[in-house]
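Open question from group meeting: does this chain pack into something compact, or does most of it stay loose? Before anyone orders reagents, we agreed to write out a predicted structure and look at it together. Recording both the input and the output here so the notebook holds the full record.
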Amino acid sequence: MAIRIKRVYEPASAEDGKRILVDRLWPRGLSKDKAQVDLWLKEVGPSNALRKWFGHDPERWSEFERRYRAELKGSEALEELKKAAKGNVTLLFGAKDEEHNQAIVLQSILMR
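Structure tokens returned:
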């Protein structure tokens, strides 16, 4: 089993396996055909309030991660993701920052 993360704007590849979008909002300017998403779990993404507070500010990363994990605790959406993440899976995200986004947090949760 492999759990990868990848920007949704990057082309799909054979190694991706099941492609799961973990953003609450659909990525701007991307058609559903081009995205090649197998499953969109928008409810597993951070709440609008948390997303806006974070604003992809690397200095807020540690606190974002703590708050996001707290949001996910007992979440039906996280349980759905765990069920869907069998075999080779790629968690897709839209953020430009590849080091500070919710897919990294979700990957670490799933790999535990």
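Observations to bring back to the group:
The chain has five helices and four strands.
The first helix runs from residue 32 to 35.
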